[in-house]
Amino acid sequence: MAGNKAERDARLDALKAAVDEWGKKEKKRYEDEAKFLQSVIDGHTGAGKTASANASKSAAYCVDKISQFLEG
Questions:
Q1: What is the pLDDT of residues 3-56, one digit of tens each?
Q2: pTM of the complete model
Q3: What's 1-62 look like in SS3?
Q4: How many angstroms separate the CA atoms of 71 and 69, rounded?
């Protein structure tokens, strides 16, 4: 019976080591992906600001033209 417990403990230790190694690799992969995606967002921020400014100006222009039409 002691042999079975020792074997089980050895398997559990091996499993724990494997899970720890896998966890470290996954954490690094997620961190690398997050850095990449943040760089993509940072690279497109300028384009987003330009589009937002254009949308605001277009909306103001439309409101102005509709007001002029309604007021005659």
A1: 799 899 999 999 999 999 999 999 999 999 988 888 877 776 666 566 667 778
A2: 0.51
A3: CHHHHHHHHHHHHHHHHHHHHHHHHHHHHHHHHHHHHHHHHHHHHHHHHHHHHHHHHHHHHH
A4: 6
